[in-house]
Amino acid sequence: MSLMGDIKVRGLRVRFGTVEAVRGIDVTAYGGRATALLGRNGAGKSTTMRVLAGVVPPTAGTVVVDGIDVVADPLRTKRRTGYCPDVGGLVPRATPWEHLQLAARLRRLEDWEDRGRDLLERFELGDAAHRVTGGFSHGMGRRLSVVLAAFHEPPVLLLDEPFDGVDPLGVDATQQVIREAKARGAAVLVSTHLRDLAVEACEDALVLRGGSAVAGMDAAELVGEAGARAYRSLLD
Ligand SMILES: Nc1ncnc2c1ncn2[C@@H]1O[C@H](COP(=O)(O)OP(=O)(O)OP(=O)(O)O)[C@@H](O)[C@H]1O
C-alpha cells in the first residue's frame, strides 16, 4: 500500500552534456520517515534532489513522488513537494515576508499568516521579516529556505544541505520541522555531509558515490565511531 509522500525512484540517470551526474540509482522513501542522502562532493545528491523536486528532468528511469510521475507531471510534483535547494532560490530584493506571500499566492494558501509568522520566529527570522534577503548571511538564507520548503506542509519535504553553515538554534529548528513533517505522515529526504545530524534526523540512509547508490542502511548503523568508520569505508 502506498502511503502519503512515498518516493519511488528506479534506474534514475541524469546526464549534463558529457557528464553523467547520476548513473542508475534507486531510492525508496516512505511517508512518516526521513531518509538521509549521504556522499562526497559530486556524488549526485543535489542532482537527485532536483529531479525529485521536478526541477531537473531525468535522462532515464522512473521517478514517482507522492503517487505522481515527475516526468508526466512536473507541475503537480512541485505542488506536492517542499524543496530547500542547496544554493539559490531566494530573491535578493524580496523580504522573508514577501517570499511567504508569494509562496502562499502560488499555492493558493489561505489563513497562512499565523503559520508564516510562527515559522519565522522559530527560525529567529522574526526581526528580519521585513529586510531584503540580499543582505542576509549564508546561515540566515539557509534558515529561510527551510521555512519556505516546510511552509505549506507538503507530503514530501526535500532538504538539500539544510544544516550547512547554520547555527545550533537554527539546527534545532530544522530538526523540529523534520520531526513535525514525519509526524503528519510526510516523507522527508535530507541531503547532508553532516553524518551526526543526518543520524539524528533520519531513520534511513542511502550513500551515493560517483552517481551510484553504494549502500542503503538504517541510519542507526552510522552512529558514533563505528558508524564513522563504516561510512568512510563506503566513500573510498
Ligand atoms: N548543471 C550541471 N551541468 C553540468 N554538470 C553538472 C550539473 N549539475 C551537476 N553536475 C555534475 O554532476 C555531478 C554530481 O553533482 P551534484 O551536485 O549532484 O553532487 P552532490 O553530491 O550534491 O555534491 P556536493 O556535495 O558537492 O553538493 C558533479 O560532477 C557535478 O559537477
TrEMBL record:
<feature type="domain" description="ABC transporter">
    <location>
        <begin position="7"/>
        <end position="235"/>
    </location>
</feature>
<dbReference type="Pfam" id="PF00005">
    <property type="entry name" value="ABC_tran"/>
</dbReference>
<keyword id="KW-0547">Nucleotide-binding</keyword>
<keyword id="KW-0067">ATP-binding</keyword>
<keyword id="KW-0813">Transport</keyword>
<dbReference type="InterPro" id="IPR003593">
    <property type="entry name" value="AAA+_ATPase"/>
</dbReference>
<dbReference type="InterPro" id="IPR003439">
    <property type="entry name" value="ABC_transporter-like_ATP-bd"/>
</dbReference>
<dbReference type="GO" id="GO:0016887">
    <property type="term" value="F:ATP hydrolysis activity"/>
</dbReference>
<protein>
    <submittedName>
        <fullName>ABC transporter ATP-binding protein</fullName>
    </submittedName>
</protein>
<dbReference type="GO" id="GO:0005524">
    <property type="term" value="F:ATP binding"/>
</dbReference>
<comment type="similarity">
    <text>Belongs to the ABC transporter superfamily.</text>
</comment>
<dbReference type="InterPro" id="IPR027417">
    <property type="entry name" value="P-loop_NTPase"/>
</dbReference>
